[in-house]
Amino acid sequence: MSARAYARSISWFSIVGAAAALMHYLSAVVLEGWFGFSPGLANFLAFLLAFPISYIGHYALSFAGSANTHGNALPRFLLVACAGFASNQLMLLSLLHFSQLPFWLALAAVMVVVAVSTYLLSRFWAFKEGI
Question: What is this structure's pTM?
């Protein structure tokens, strides 16, 4: 991949990731704060709302140069996303249990940490051709 294509991929990944993260974050905060859902359930439902934005955007934009099919990329991306969510949920619930951080701040911190690992797994495995 050329440096220009790599920079474009990272740019789109950032934009799509930000859109999905915003959907996840705002949904979780609203579900937990306004509707009284437990933090774990609010986080899970928000993940479900953000997943389609993330997958479709990354498939169509971030990794558009990939010849990988949905049949190959979707199961891999789903696995990456679920692993990221499991890490997110574990870190979030741990932070809430062991600290005095409010839900909205703990969720924001955890989402930043998980985003980096999700990018790396998506880039080098989920959307990699031929594997």
Answer: 0.83
